[in-house]
Specification:
The complex is a heterodimer of chains A (about 150) and B (about 400).
Chain A lengths: L5 E6 L4 E5 H4 L3 H8 L7 E3 L4 H13 L7 H11 L4 H14 L2 H15 L4 H8 L7 H10 L1 H4 L1
Parallel strand pairs in A: 1-3
Antiparallel strand pairs in A: 1-2
Helix pairs in contact in A: 3-5, 5-6
Chain B lengths: L10 H9 L3 H6 L16 E4 L1 H4 L8 H15 L6 E5 L10 H8 L5 E5 L6 E2 L12 E5 L1 E2 L14 E5 L5 H9 L6 E5 L7 E4 L5 E5 L5 E5 L5 E5 L10 E2 H6 L6 E5 L1 H4 E2 L16 E6 L2 H12 L6 E6 L8 H7 L10 E7 L3 H12 L6 E6 L6 H11 L10 E4 L3
Parallel strand pairs in B: 1-2, 2-3, 3-5, 4-6, 5-7, 7-8, 8-10, 9-11, 10-12, 12-14, 13-15, 14-16, 16-17, 17-18, 18-19, 19-20
Classes of the chains: A mainly alpha (about 150), B alpha/beta (about 400).
Chain lengths: ~150, ~400
């Protein structure tokens, strides 16, 4: 029987989140702190804001629920990731900082899916990347990696 | 604060994104902008699969295409390469890759996957067999002849050999010279040599082929065992069930396909002489009633079983319903929390099986029924679920879910 211990997480904008330890240790960083026994006060997370933390906790809670089928989780993930790029990057940076490999992988796959199969122009437009190559430089790259561009 | 842009994400995040793309898409990012030009070159893991060699009209030939791509990648790639996957499983003729193999084995690679085609087993060059930092190795459709002086891959943690040609001596040596080996997968349907496996740190073993030829000599830490069945064996090639499991008392996970094809079930006891006290997860597939007898023997011998997964493909034999019911009389799933049953089409036998499982599991939390997608339409599925809801459950907490999609 696991005791339900609550941890307090404090985000960069000063908001506090109370969370079951069993759920919070999805973050390897938090898990390490628990094991090193430095969680008596609120755990400061200066690199994560409250908006992003809310979303991360939403993900953790769903993925800790008992009795949820794989299909239900997939549906949840799909909806969870249907957000604008900037939200995804904030989530990715937070997941990276918190060291939650599973969440990092899920977000990276989503970003990859948005890149796959698109032309360079489409990718630049969607991800707001400025093309700073001259036409000659672009041609050189196309030739250098010809097999990828044919 | 400006919202982050994809280009400014940390390198490990960019790598993770690029590694989730097929290699071609990853290389195409080189043209997005100056900052992106060489991001793909730093990827620590590369996967080159059959899609890369295919062209719509097979021109240039896959061989030439392969050489062009390899030259491009190896000249531009910088930084450590820890994982390399090369799949040529659909080529009938291979380009010369001995020097590529040599290059890889000298470059600090930790995880290597080489898959060749079933038409043409590739002979690994002797330069492959050098002391290296390899930790994970997967070889498919290879001819493996290590030179006599080879001392093994002493850092190997996991080894997977699928449809390889290797002498039993070479295989035994390969395994015993990897003292850190924890995971072993052998797919050797055409093997008929006796092989002794000595792996003191082995935790997981997956085997496809005739298990009788495999002798697990020194595997005190074996926790997970998967015996997959490609075919049915002659009686003389089957194992004694009781004797086999006597040597593996520490098992926690067992995956057994078609037990009666691999083990002598007719003479099997109702209960093993030494219990599987640590077995928590059991998967069985049932094609005939003898497979069920085998499964029940294992269940009776596993007092701590928590998860049971069953896949059924049994013919309609409604006259056997009473026999099945009787065989459950001394069966208790006393610690089982989850049960999953797949392949259901709604025969009397299957429904009786589900009824018995529900009646014998006092700690059950969840039962998932997966009807056969091809044979059961939504209407039939609803009928099955309706019938299931009338069955008595030993556990008041038990929820039954029928996955109808």
């Amino acid at each position: 029987m696991s005791s339900t211990k609550l941890l307090t997480l404090k985000t960069s904008d000063g908001e506090e989140f109370k969370l079951d330890e069993a759920v919070a240790v999805k973050s390897q960083a938090i898990k390490n702190m628990v094991e090193d026994d430095c969680v008596s006060n609120a755990i400061p997370l200066p690199n994560v804001d409250s908006k992003t933390m809310t979303k991360v906790i939403e993900y953790w809670k769903k993925h800790s629920e008992e009795g949820v089928s794989k299909d239900q989780l997939n549906d949840f993930d799909k909806g969870f990731l249907e957000v604008h790029h900037s939200v995804l990057y904030d989530l990715l940076l937070a997941a990276n900082y918190l060291n939650d490999k599973e969440l990092v992988d899920v977000i990276c796959q989503e970003v990859a899916d948005r890149i796959k199969g698109k032309t360079p122009e489409e990718i630049r437009k969607e991800f707001d990347i400025k093309n700073d190559f001259t036409p000659e430089e672009e041609e050189k790259i196309r030739q250098e990696n010809a097999w990828a561009f044919d | 604060m400006m919202p982050p842009k994809i280009t400014d994400l940390p390198e490990n995040a960019i790598n993770a994104i690029l590694m989730s793309l097929p290699l071609r898409d990853a290389v195409r990012t080189s043209i997005l902008s100056k900052k992106w030009r060489y991001k793909w070159c730093k990827l620590p893991e590369l996967t080159l699969d059959d899609k890369l060699w295919k062209t719509t009209d097979n021109l240039p030939s896959p061989s030439i295409r392969f050489t062009t791509i390899m030259y491009n990648i190896l000249t531009l790639h910088s930084g450590p390469l820890t994982k390399f996957t090369l799949s040529m499983s659909e080529l009938k003729k291979y380009p010369k890759i001995d020097s590529l193999i040599h290059f890889l084995s000298r470059n600090g690679i930790q995880h290597l996957v080489l898959q060749f085609s079933k038409w043409n087993r590739y002979k690994l060059p002797s330069s492959f067999f050098t002391r290296s930092q390899l930790r994970h190795l997967t070889l498919q459709n290879c001819l493996i002849c290590p030179p006599p002086a080879f001392e093994g891959f002493n850092m190997l943690i996991s080894l997977e050999l699928c449809h390889v040609s290797i002498s039993s001596e070479a295989l035994e040596n390969l395994i015993s010279s990897s003292p850190l080996l924890e995971n072993l997968v052998l797919k050797m349907s055409d093997n008929s040599n006796h092989i002794q496996i000595k792996a003191p740190k082995l935790r997981s073993f997956e085997f496809t082929g005739c298990i009788k030829f495999i002798s697990l000599k020194n595997v005190p830490q074996l926790a997970k065992l998967s015996l997959l069945c490609g075919e049915s064996f002659e009686e003389s090639e089957k194992c004694d069930l009781d004797k086999f499991f006597q040597s593996h008392p520490a098992l926690e996970h067992l995956h057994l396909e078609y037990g009666s094809a691999q083990f002598l079930v007719a003479e099997a006891p109702t209960r093993l002489s030494s219990a599987l006290n640590y077995l928590k997860h059991l998967y069985v597939s049932l094609d005939e009633l003898n497979d069920l007898s085998c499964a029940l023997c294992l269940i009776r011998s596993s007092p701590c079983l928590q998860d049971l997964e069953v896949e059924v493909s049994m013919e309609e034999s409604d006259d056997k319903v009473d026999e099945v019911s009787a065989s459950f009389s001394d069966v208790g799933l006393n610690q089982v929390k989850t049960v999953k049953i797949a392949g259901i089409i709604g025969t009397k036998l299957e429904m009786e099986l589900i009824k018995l499982l529900l009646a014998k599991s006092p700690m059950l939390v969840r039962m998932i029924i997966q009807p056969d997608q091809l044979l059961v339409d939504k209407e039939k599925g609803v009928k099955i679920l309706a019938e299931l809801s009338t069955f008595q459950r030993a556990s008041r907490k038990a929820e039954v879910e029928c996955q109808l999609e």
